[in-house]
Write a structure and sequence with these properties.
It contains six helices and no strands. By secondary structure, it is mainly alpha-helical.
């Protein structure tokens, strides 16, 4: 069993961690923009309220990571967040092959992208949680909560993504579960300790 590191009061390679944190802040800005737009698309459906909850949580997470950056005396690079916002805007016409209208696959592409984004940001939380074991300025309890929250978000997005895939192409949205039952039960996202705790 690996021995727990002794806290040193400072992370190694802080300049690299500063870049890493800013990259995740930029990704958070893009996620907020995407979910804000998705709320408009799904207004009046049973997906609207869970998306609104997700948006609130994404904003909270972005504020939390900003707070960690400040605690570590890292500069927050706003230009990266602006660049991500512009890229998300520009990608709208490229996602589904329709320039002026939504394709039937638009919802599927967006929920697949969202699922990947949630997995990516959860990895970021886990990396910071590891760093928290050697730097007491990083709030370990906060990161534990954010990891659990990301697990729950991933459960919900995965469920919706499968439902949307079935509505677009036909088929049984529960079919991937049979593959999981024959393997390790992993949906590509690792050990989701929040399994069964759905969004909304």
């Amino acid at each position: 069993m690996t021995q727990a590191p002794v806290p040193t009061g400072s992370v190694s390679h802080p300049e690299l961690l500063a870049v890493y944190v800013n990259d995740h802040l930029a990704a958070a800005a893009g996620g907020i923009e995407l979910v804000s737009r998705m709320i408009g698309v799904h207004r009046g459906t049973d997906r609207e309220q869970p998306l609104r909850q997700l948006l609130d949580e994404l904003r909270e997470e972005k504020a939390a990571i900003t707070g960690i950056a400040q605690a570590l005396d890292f500069p927050v690079r706003q230009y990266k967040q602006v660049a991500t916002w512009v890229a998300e805007k520009a990608s709208r016409a490229k996602l589904n092959g329709h320039l002026l209208t939504r394709s039937p696959s638009s919802d599927l592409v967006e929920f697949e992208f969202l699922a990947s984004a949630v997995r990516g940001k959860r990895s970021g939380f886990e990396t910071l949680r590891i760093a928290a074991t050697v730097d007491s300025r990083i709030d370990a309890d906060l990161l534990d909560r954010l990891i659990r929250q990301a697990n729950r978000q991933h459960d919900w997005v995965t469920e919706v993504r499968r439902d949307v895939a079935a509505s677009v192409f036909g088929g049984d949205p529960s079919a991937p579960d049979s593959a999981a039952d024959g393997g390790n039960g992993d949906d590509g996202g690792g050990d989701d300790s929040g399994a069964g705790d759905r969004q909304g």
